[in-house]
Amino acid sequence: MALAILCLLALPGCVFDDFNDVGGMFTPKTPTEAARDALDPYSPDLRREGIVLLSNATFGGAEIYLEMYRTYVADETDPLVRAAAIAALGRHGTPEDAMRIVPWLDPEVSSSGNVRWVAAKALQRLHNSESVEPLIDAMTNQEEEGEVRAAAAIALGQYQEDRVFQALLLALDDRRLSVNLDAAQSLAMLTGESFGLDRVAWQRWYQGLEKKSTLFSGHRDYYYPTYTRNKLWFEYIAFWLQQNHETSMQPAGLRPSTPERKTWDEDTSPTPDAS
Asked: Which H, E and C letters describe the chain, residue by residue?
């Protein structure tokens, strides 16, 4: 008990922030409020929060929201809002939307490392062969941030192309360990082989193939990675709070299309211009 009191006294900001989070869970914003925030012309923070809330909702893939994400990807000036829209489009978009995201991999187009990182992660979820070359450029650009290169290496694991294999081999020598590991994982996904970070072993295996057409004959199905976390302290106490983590799936364009749930649980579905 004394230790707990000392913790409360020593870390008031952390503890009260957690209690604020708990309160937010009991009084979450309604879909109408989230849609209103997403369209707020004055507050980038509200726009970002609204987009995140909508994109994580069951109805977040409705066409009216997809058009909003696409508009923000193209026209938004705040990098955090644009990043949120890119992530939303990656989650709910079509293979064609990959080409709306690809330009934001380029440092000459966006100076925001966060935008480029989110773009690479979004392309893990959208299968479009036209994004291969930009992803290779991002992964092999040694001036690029390591997180972006690593995310691009993961995204390339869905493309069974010789140029992808060769680029991933080069990435095994990247100066960042995270890039090495993700490139090795993508190589294993593409080929079914497990030579880890040993580039020489990968090259010998490649050179020993009787037919290069068998390069990907042992491939494994690609599933994009999803975010998971451990429970927070109050979630052990409030055991009724459910953790609903996103399920890893194949990218749009590789997985069978399924009908989207586009309405809310209540009688009416909110729209962005809801008052």
From this structure: CHHHHHHHHHCHHHHHHHHHHHHHHHCCCCHHHHHHHHCCCCCHHHHHHHHHHHHCCCCCCCHHHHHHHHHHHHHCCCHHHHHHHHHHHHHHCCHHHHHHHHHHHCCCCCCCHHHHHHHHHHCCCECCHHHHHHHHHHHHCCCCCHHHHHHHHHHHHHCCCHHHHHHHHHHCCCCCHHHHHHHHHHHHHHHCCCCCCCHHHHHHHHHCCCCHHHCCCCCCCCCCCCCCCCCCHHHHHCCCCCCCCCCCCCCECCECCCCCCCCCCCCCCCCCCCC
15: Cβ contacts below 8 Å, ≥ 6 apart: 7, 8
Side chain identity, residue 274: A
What is the domain partition of the chain in residue ranges?
32-237
- Say yes or no to pLDDT of 109 above 60: yes
CA angle (147 as vertex; 195, 232 as ends), nearest 5: 100
Q: What is the reported pTM?
A: 0.79
For residue 202, what pLDDT is reported?
Answer: 97
Residue 230 identity: N
- What tens digit of pLDDT does each residue of 223-251 get? 998 866 665 555 455 444 455 567 878 89
- Cβ-contact 38, 272 below 8 angstroms: yes
Q: Which CATH architecture has domain 32-237?
A: Alpha Horseshoe (1.25)
The Cα angle at residue 168 between residues 163 and 174, in degrees rounded to 5: 135
